Amino acid sequence: MILAALAASPLACSAGNEPVAATTLCDAADQAYFACKTASGRLINLCGQYPQRLQYLYGRPGRLELAYPEAAAGGPEKLSYAHYVRPDTDYTEIGFARGEIAYAVFDYREGSGRTAGVAVTLADGSERRFECATPIESQLQIWSGVLRCDPDNALTGGQCPAPSKQD
Question: Which candidate, 15, 92, 125, 136, has a CA 20 to 30 Å from the CA of 110?
Answer without folding.
Answer: 125
